[in-house]
C-alpha cells in the first residue's frame, strides 16, 4: 500500500470516526494471557461484556488514545509488525469497537482530545468507586487490615500455619480418636456445621477485602450464599496480587482452626470440649486445605491459572491432550508453543489421573455400600454408574467452557 493510498484511507476513516479516534478511558485491558496455543488480551468496559483480542489488536486499541491520528498509528503498527493495515481492516476494527461501545464518539472539528490511555488494571479506577453491597464498610476493612497483605505479615502467617499443620499431622491419630465420638452425636455435629459455615463466610469476606485492598471496585459478596464476585479481578496487572486474592480465603479458614487447636492442647483430655475441639480441628483442616487443590472451581485452580498466565486451563488442557493423536498422525491441528505444551500437558495428565483415582474410590465405596444387598455385582454396577457419570460430564464440558474469540482477528 502506497503512502498516498494510506493517507486517503486515513482521511476517509477520519470523516467517519473522527480525526483522532479514542477508546473509552474506562476500558480495562488485561496483561497478555494464554488460551491454548494462542496469546490474547481481555478487554472490558464497565457494565459491558468481556472480549478477547489478539496482541496486534491490543496494540492498536492501546494506541487509540486520542493523541495520534490513524496515519501515525498505522505507521507505528507497520514499524512494530512489518505490515500496513488496509481500509477494510481499519474499518472492521473501528466498527467493532463502536458497536461494542468501546469507542468514544468523534471530537468536535478542530479539537484534539486529551490523551487518555485505557486502564491496564483496576488500580487505575477512582478510589471512591463503590465496592459492592458493603460499600464503605469493605473499604474500611481493607484499610484496617492493609498491614496483613505486607510481605513480613505474609511470611509470619505462612510460617505459623506451617507449624500448625505440622502439629496436626503429628497428632492426627490422637485427634482422630478424640473426635470419633463427636461424629455420632447430632448436637456436636450441629456445632461443627455452624463453625464451618462461619469459617466459610470469613473465607468469602477475605476475598472481598483483599480485592478492595488491591484496587478492585466491583466487589459483590453474598455471605449467606457464600459467594464473592470481583469484576476487575482478571484485569489486575500483577499476577502476584491475583494469587493473593485467590489464596487469602483458605488462609482465613486456617486461622479459624488455630484457636481450636490451641484449646485442644490446653483443655483437659477426655472432656466434651476436648473431643469437640478435636473434631473442629480435623474438619477445619480439610476445609482449609481443600481450597488449594488445583481443580476447578477451587481457589487452587485459580491460583495456578494466574501463575501460569492462562485462562480455561482445565478445558484447554483436555483439548490439547485429545488433539495430540490427530496432530501426530495426520499433522492436523494448531501448533502449540513449548510453554503451552508443558503446562497443558502436565496439568491435563494430572487432571485425568486425579479424576480416575476419584472415580475408582467412589466406585469402590459404592460397591462396599451395596454389597450386603446386591452381592459382588454391586461393584460392577457402581463402576458402571461412575463411568457413565464421568463420560456425560466430560461430553458436556467442552461445549460449555471452550469458547472462540468474540470476533475474527482483524490484523
Automatic annotation (TrEMBL):
Q: Please provide the record's keywords in A-Z order.
A: Hydrolase, Membrane, Metalloprotease, Protease, Transmembrane, Transmembrane helix
Q: Does the keyword Transmembrane helix apply?
A: yes
Q: Keyword check for Membrane, yes or no.
A: yes
**Per its record, what are the GO molecular function terms?**
metallopeptidase activity
The membrane-spanning stretches of this chain are: 144-166, 243-267, 303-321, 342-365, 377-395
Which Gene Ontology terms describe the biological processes this protein takes part in?
proteolysis
Task: Write down what this protein is called.
Answer: Putative peptide zinc metalloprotease protein
